[in-house]
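Hi support team,

I've been running sequence recovery on a batch of backbones for a student project. Most finish fine, but this one hangs at about 90% for roughly twenty minutes before it completes. I'm not sure whether the input is malformed or the queue is just slow. I've pasted the structure tokens below so you can try to reproduce it. Let me know if you need the job ID as well.

Thanks,
M.K.
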């Protein structure tokens, strides 16, 4: 390594130390957002905008950008981790105009005003009007953003898709969702028609929130959610956040009339959390100390939520504890009843509560709407109508209000456009990972053990430990022994639900 490269490395590492330090106040603010006094919000927002300004200046600083250029030019002399970081940094936008700082900061203020207070109000009242003006500004900014960042090879909506999952474009997602529409939509219709009703206990009985929290605490032990490194809280929309691999926090939401919602939200978020907990320690002081991509992250949460958490071996071990926790509420309910309940497929309005089979249709709807934001067919004026029309088209449902519809998810109102498609892609990754894991040991037996230790160890070795030091496609191929193949997902769902519903594949 020559002297010029060494100086560039020092500059790059110095700026990144400051950037990593700025993660902490944003992380803590996110954790406290829904519990802070309402009057504190305006002043807190001003402080966060100042922090965002510091972050922007660091990321776009002349010396930092020059250091990245130098490292990229001399990447053959770098360690594998630093070489990958230089390549990723070099793919970052190089054509940002000289004046977007003011627009960027104004946009951060829009997001802070919208989420969580206005979003929660809109969701709980079912009134889209509460967030409509904010969504207008969010869409407008993201349209500008893609213009600033697009290159000859990456334009429009593809810019955002690539940020959440490197290498993914609308053309690739069109192919993926096209397969889902061809293969799964007709199958889903037959499965829905063949379904039998669930045990009435799950529809008529109340499940006290305190008991739900107690069982989720039990699940934390099953999921190896180390209490020295983790916390569980409550929010309107469950999420996972972390500051390194020693401070991982998740939230959940509880409904007394829905036992499954909190259980599977907890397992889902703990899947995200376990990924972060198992990133290698030696990556924590680098920019590679977190998950590789959103789809790979979702593969871990969906893997535990569905492939493990909805399996019979898992509940053969843990259903007795659930029955002890809800002894009165689950009186007369058998394991078979419970398995039918948690794997029952039905058309539903809420994405996070959707069963495995219908889930990709919820994501498809959001993907098609996001595409419309950038081809000019969808805006804040017609988005609710478009949303409701697609739920009627794909799931045959009428949407009663915005809280059950276009305002049910936090993502757009937090500025995360391009994120949704990774949910379906992550589910598809999970199916292929599940198949690959099964070649190395008896996964069914492992799911029936006291905890997920054997499964977690395999995931750490093949996926988690790498953090983002490699591209997601490379990590997936390393774990599975082959590139991504969506047929694993299609076959997994058809195999599972043809058996459950007694229908042909």
């Amino acid at each position: 390594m020559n002297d010029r490269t060494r100086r560039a490395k020092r500059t790059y590492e110095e700026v990144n130390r400051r950037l990593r330090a700025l993660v902490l106040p944003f992380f803590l603010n996110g954790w406290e957002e829904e519990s802070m006094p309402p009057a504190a919000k305006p002043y807190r927002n001003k402080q966060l905008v100042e922090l965002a300004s510091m972050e922007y200046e660091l990321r776009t600083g002349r010396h930092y950008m020059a250091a990245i250029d130098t490292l990229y030019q001399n990447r053959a002399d770098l360690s594998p981790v630093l070489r990958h970081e230089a390549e990723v940094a070099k793919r970052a936008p190089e054509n940002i105009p000289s004046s977007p700082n003011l627009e960027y900061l104004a946009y951060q203020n829009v997001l802070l005003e919208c989420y969580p207070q206005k979003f929660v109000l809109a969701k709980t009242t079912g009134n889209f009007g509460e967030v409509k003006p904010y969504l207008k500004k969010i869409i407008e900014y993201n349209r500008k953003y893609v213009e600033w960042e697009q290159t000859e090879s990456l334009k429009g909506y593809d810019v955002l898709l690539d940020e959440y999952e490197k290498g993914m474009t609308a053309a690739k997602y069109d192919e993926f969702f096209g397969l889902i529409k061809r293969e799964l939509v007709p199958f889903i219709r037959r499965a829905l028609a063949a379904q039998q009703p669930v045990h009435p206990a799950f529809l008529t009985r109340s499940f006290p929130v305190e008991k739900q929290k107690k069982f989720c605490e039990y699940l934390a032990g099953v999921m190896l959610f180390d209490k020295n490194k983790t916390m569980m809280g409550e929010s309107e929309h469950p999420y996972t956040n972390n500051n390194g691999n020693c401070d991982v926090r998740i939230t959940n939401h509880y409904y007394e009339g829905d036992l499954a919602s909190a259980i599977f939200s907890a397992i889902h978020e703990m899947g995200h959390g376990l990924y972060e907990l198992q990133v290698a320690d030696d990556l924590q002081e680098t920019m590679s100390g977190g998950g590789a991509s959103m789809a790979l992250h979702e593969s871990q949460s969906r893997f535990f939520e569905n492939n493990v958490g909805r399996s019979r071996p898992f509940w053969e071990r843990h259903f007795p504890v659930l029955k002890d926790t809800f002894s009165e509420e689950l009186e007369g309910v058998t394991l078979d009843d419970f398995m039918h309940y948690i794997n029952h497929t039905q058309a539903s309005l809420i994405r996070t509560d959707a069963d495995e089979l219908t889930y990709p249709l919820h994501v498809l709807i959001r993907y098609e709407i996001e595409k419309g934001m950038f081809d000019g067919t969808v805006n804040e004026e017609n988005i609710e109508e478009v949303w409701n029309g697609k739920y009627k088209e794909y799931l045959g449902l009428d949407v009663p209000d915005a809280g059950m519809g276009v305002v049910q998810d936090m993502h757009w109102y937090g500025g995360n456009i391009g994120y949704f498609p990774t949910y379906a892609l992550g589910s598809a990754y999970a199916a292929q990972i599940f198949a690959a894991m099964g070649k190395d040991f008896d996964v069914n037996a492992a799911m029936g053990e006291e905890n997920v230790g054997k499964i977690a160890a395999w995931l750490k070795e093949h996926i988690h430990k790498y953090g983002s030091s490699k591209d997601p496609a490379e990590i997936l191929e390393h774990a599975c022994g082959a590139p991504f193949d969506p047929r694993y997902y299609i076959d997994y769902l058809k195999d599972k639900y043809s058996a459950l519903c007694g229908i042909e594949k």
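--
Follow-up from support: It reproduced on our side and the slowdown came from queue contention, not your input. The chain has two domains: 3-136, 171-501. No action needed from you.
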